[in-house]
Fold this protein.
Amino acid sequence: MHAYRSRIKGEYAWLILGVSVLVYEALAPADQLLTTACARGLTRHPVLTRAAIVITAAHLLRLIPPSLDPYSGAEKLLRKWN
């Protein structure tokens, strides 16, 4: 069985993500902006919200060993299911 290979390169994925965020922020009502949603998360679930932000940043900066990185673990699980 062949491993799945994305046709989208990482650089294009970042471009798509960035453009998507810009379009969303331009079109969303003020009370539904991503920063506003984050502020609501910090109010309702301060530890979980901060942990998600820190873990995501640490993942992107490759500060977490792959064996402990939840994003790497999720990727491995998804690849097993394909």
Residues 25 and 34 are 7 Å apart (CA to CA). The chain has four helices and no strands.
